[in-house]
Amino acid sequence: MSEIDILSVSFDPFKEVDNSTEFVPGVRSKGAVHVRVQQRNGRKCLTTAPGISKNFSYNKILKDLRKELCCNGNVVEDLELGQVIQLQGDQRKNVAHFLTQRGIVKKEQVKLHGF
């Protein structure tokens, strides 16, 4: 019979982990826009986009999003996340495409979350 080779594992479970690229609720990544969908009631859902730079006018972005996506939305002030754009419906891919197309964020900075 052949001997079983033991593979050395380079993963150390007790090592300190750098969570800069992982999503942690309530903690904003540097420059990342986390586009999420939240289930409301029944088939209704809500798309949120926190993390857009404060250099941009949220109301102007919302106005263009509402016009292009044919849906309603508003800007909500959150204690942890700051200003958050909310839109009706599951608009994750559309919002990500809009933000990258208009040059508001880079494609690498958009993180899509949800079911």
TrEMBL record:
The keyword Cell membrane does not apply. SUPFAM superfamilies: eIF1-like. Residues 33-103 form the SUI1 domain. Pfam families: SUI1 (PF01253). The keyword Protein biosynthesis applies. It comes from the Eukaryota. Keywords: Protein biosynthesis, Translation regulation. CDD domains: eIF1_SUI1. GO terms for molecular function: mRNA binding; translation initiation factor activity. GO terms for biological process: regulation of translation. InterPro entries: SUI1 (IPR001950), SUI1_dom_sf (IPR036877), SUI1_euk (IPR005874). Probably involved in translation. Belongs to the SUI1 family. This is SUI1 domain-containing protein. It comes from Ceratopteris richardii (Triangle waterfern).
